[in-house]
Amino acid sequence: MTDTTGDTRTVIVETALSCFRTHGLRRTSVVDIAHAAGVSRSTVYEYFADKRAIVDAASEHATQSFYRRMARAMATAGTLEDQLAGAAVAVVQARHFIVPERLSDPSEVHSLLTTNAAALLRECGQFLAPYLSAAKLTGEVRRDLDVDGAAEWFARMLFSLFLTPSERLDLDDADAVAGFVREHVVRGFVDARSRQPPNRQRQVP
């Protein structure tokens, strides 16, 4: 006998995401999700205690889908600079995929993305760290680069690109976003002179 438990849960989560994108978070009820998924309301409650639990699961599902998108965007890049530029482009493109502009109620977006903000930031940093470590081995970045710190810093910038509109940067222009990252991010990982004061003297103990 085939176990359809995982399949049913996935269908409910993916349907919930579709409903949230179409109708908005507040306007979507558990009944709406059940109807769209082709299951009964009691079936939904077999997997989720309440709507909040569905929202959390949908957010996690969207996050994992996002990382797969970002990994694909970075996989075709040859250098760290290309990889991080590709990651930034994937992030700004995901803004329209996850939260269409016509439904972008700031409070809803805030609810979806900041409920577990610290965990999301940590996960994003962990995702990026291997790329930075590999770049240290190839000499693309300075040898004294704090990989975890740099990964968290760039993760925070990706969050900002996702959440914050810009008056000077066209976030719908992939080339502009990539150029912004190349100019202001990657080269900061390379130039060690900014960390070494010119007249610093070594003190003898």
From TrEMBL:
Regions recorded as binding DNA: 29-48
Domain HTH tetR-type per the UniProt entry, residue ranges: 6-66
KW DNA-binding (keyword) present: yes
SUPFAM superfamilies: Homeodomain-like, Tetracyclin repressor-like, C-terminal domain
Lineage: Bacteria, Bacillati, Actinomycetota, Actinomycetes, Mycobacteriales
GO molecular function: DNA-binding transcription factor activity; transcription cis-regulatory region binding
Official protein name in the record: TetR/AcrR family transcriptional regulator
Keywords: DNA-binding
InterPro entries recorded: Homeodomain-like_sf (IPR009057), HTH-type_TetR-like_transc_reg (IPR050109), HTH_TetR (IPR001647), Tet_transcr_reg_TetR-rel_C_sf (IPR036271)
